[in-house]
Each structure stands twice: as C-alpha cells, then as structure tokens.
Amino acid sequence: MKKSFFINGGAGRVLCSIPALEYYKENIDPDVVIVGEAWNELYLTSPKLRHNVWPINSKGLWEKLKDTEIVSTEPYRLNAYFNQKANLIQAFDMLINYDVPPEEVPETKSISLEINKADQIYGHNLVTQVKKQTGKKKVVVFQPLGSGAKKDGDFIFDSSGRSFEVRDVFKIVEELSKNYAVILMTNIEIPTDKQMGAIIPNGTNLLQWMGIINAADYFLGCDSMGQHYAHALGKPATVVIGATYPENISYPKNADFTIIDVGKEKRQYMPFRVTTDFAVERDSEDLMIFEDNVFKQIIKSVTDKLGVEKKTENKSIPQIPLLQQNKQSNTFLDTGKSKSKKTR
C-alpha cells in the first residue's frame, strides 16, 4: 500500500524533513502525498516536492489519503535521536525511507534550498541598504531567541534553555556592531529604552529571512531556524547551544560551523514529545547563561571568519532606523520591497 506522510512541528523540523522526502519521491513513490501541518511554505523551496505537499485543510485532500497508509513521523521518539546518534535529517530519513529504522544510522543527506526571485531580491536589497546606511562592508544576521522564548512585560525568558539572555544580546550586538552591520532575526520586541545597534526588518516572513541570510556574510544564533538556513545555504555560522544537543539539532561536521556548547556536561536530555519532566526543565532554563570567556569566544568566532575592519573616522548616520523599542513610536527598517507569496 502506498504511504502518505504528515509532517508537523517547528520550521526547523519541517526543513530537515525535506531530504528524506525528496529521496522517497525519487526512489519509491513519485506521487507521494505529503501533508504539511505547519510551515508549508518551506516546501516551496524544494522543486522536487512542491507539487506533492498539501496543507492539512486542503479541499479534496481526503480523496488522496484514504487509500494510503498514513504515517505521522516523529523524530523525537526515535531511539537513535534521543540517544544522540542521529540528527533531525537522519531521523526523518530513518522514519520515512525504511520500513523499520535501521540499527546503523545513515549518512546525513544534503539539503539544498531554491530561493525564489522575489525573496532573493528582498534579501539582496535589504543587506545592500544596511551596508550603505551603516558604512559597514559585512553583515551578520543574529538570531538570539528560539521558539521557546516568551515575553512578559519587560522580561524575555526561555524555559527550554535555548535562547540567549537579553543582557548578552545587548553585549554581543554592541561588540559586533563595531565592525559589522547587525540584523536581528526576531519577531519579539527586546525591551530597551535606548537605541540598539542592530536593525530588525519589519514584517519579514520565513522565506524572506532565507533571502536575507543568503545575502549576508555570517550567521550567529541559537538552536532555532536560522542555523538550518545557514547550513543549507553554505553560510559560515556560529551556533551557541544550551539545553539541547549539537548532535541532534545542529551540524558539528560542517566545517563552516562553529558550535559553542555552553550546556555541555551540565544538561540532561529533555524528552520533548515523549514525556514532560518538569524537574529537568527547571534544571535546563539557565543553561544559556554564560560567563565572559564564552562571550569572547563568540565574538572571536565571528572575527576569525570575517576579519576586522580598519578603524576609520566615526560618522554620524542619523538616517539609520535603529531599533527603538519600549516606546510607542517604534521604528524599524522597511525596505518597501516585494514580499513572497503567502502559502496556498
């Protein structure tokens, strides 16, 4: 019997399912039905899959599903995954392309993304504008917050232990902005009563962020979507990891990646989507709090790859719409460029 696959979870999981699904279509069933329970637009980046993916509420979808064996893939429940023997791409491969997950973990399949013209242009124009306005030659995209981050009043916290602390976000931006333009990849306002030396594009969607990272020079982030983009697009990156495991959620074998593991030897595995262990969650929430030596390591990892700009006379650039949050009149960079199409 033919199979159909349901894919759910965060954007990073969806992206990591693409190599396995492409292989399945090419080698097993060219008409395979894939149901995207979230972030369907990411499948548009795969020429091989974009015509096989259906949003869960699509009219007529049931007719395509009723004669198939429906498979709900869950990599977090795979033994090789929760024992740090497989990453997300490998876990999806084992669940999709094998009747029974093999004992030997297959090699990580490569992932490539096709960015549409509108999003390439959006990213190129925005990065070019940022460089011109800041007078910097290179741009760093910094994603400080993971999907577990929440804002409560003037506080931002992440009980899952994956996001940077706000104090470190300010410190990192201040140091990096001495040599590079910094674009913050976040949809959460960071509380501050002063200008922050970074730019947040206004209303940018996931596919446009792909265009921005593609046009930027470097990526810095935590366990979240941006690092998967950087890996797929061949961009150098620094990934700072706290409560999760690099072997599971990142790419330690990527020579262009610097993994800074601040939670090593302190964390316990958090069994997401298997069970909830509140004691482990409490133990994990502070794992992204780090000392000055880690801060220096982060900055050095960027400057080692990008170099340091020669000191020039400081110029006042009042036209830069820097982030001014915690005020009624927030101002964000708005390029006015075309947006990518919404998911069908």
What does this structure look like?
The chain contains 11 helices and 11 strands. It has helices spanning 11-27, 61-65, 79-82, 88-96, 117-134, 166-176, 206-215, 225-233, 246-249, 278-284, 292-306; strands spanning 3-7, 33-36, 53-55, 69-72, 139-143, 149-152, 155-158, 181-184, 218-221, 237-241, 257-261. The protein is globular. The protein is of the alpha/beta class and 344 residues long. It has 2 domains: 3-96, no CATH class; 117-306, Glycogen Phosphorylase B (Rossmann fold, 3-Layer(aba) Sandwich), CATH 3.40.50.2000. The model is unreliable at 314-344 (pLDDT under 50). Helix 1 packs across helix 4, helix 5 packs across helix 7 and helix 7 (206-215) packs across helix 8 (225-233). The strands form 3 sheets. It has a 5-stranded parallel β-sheet with strand order 8-5-9-10-11, with helices on both faces. The two termini are 28 Å apart.
The CATH class of the largest domain, by name, is Alpha Beta
Number of helices: 11
> How would a textbook summarize the main sheet?
5 strands, parallel
Q: What order do the strands of the largest sheet run in, or round the barrel if closed?
A: 8-5-9-10-11
Structural class: alpha/beta
User: First CA to last CA: what distance?
Assistant: 28 Å
Please tell me the overall pLDDT.
Answer: 90
Give the strand tally. 11
Q: What's the name of the CATH homologous superfamily of the largest domain?
A: Glycogen Phosphorylase B
Helix/strand order: EHEEHEHHHEEEHEHEHEHEHH
Q: What is the CATH architecture assignment of the largest domain?
A: 3-Layer(aba) Sandwich
Strand content: 5-15%
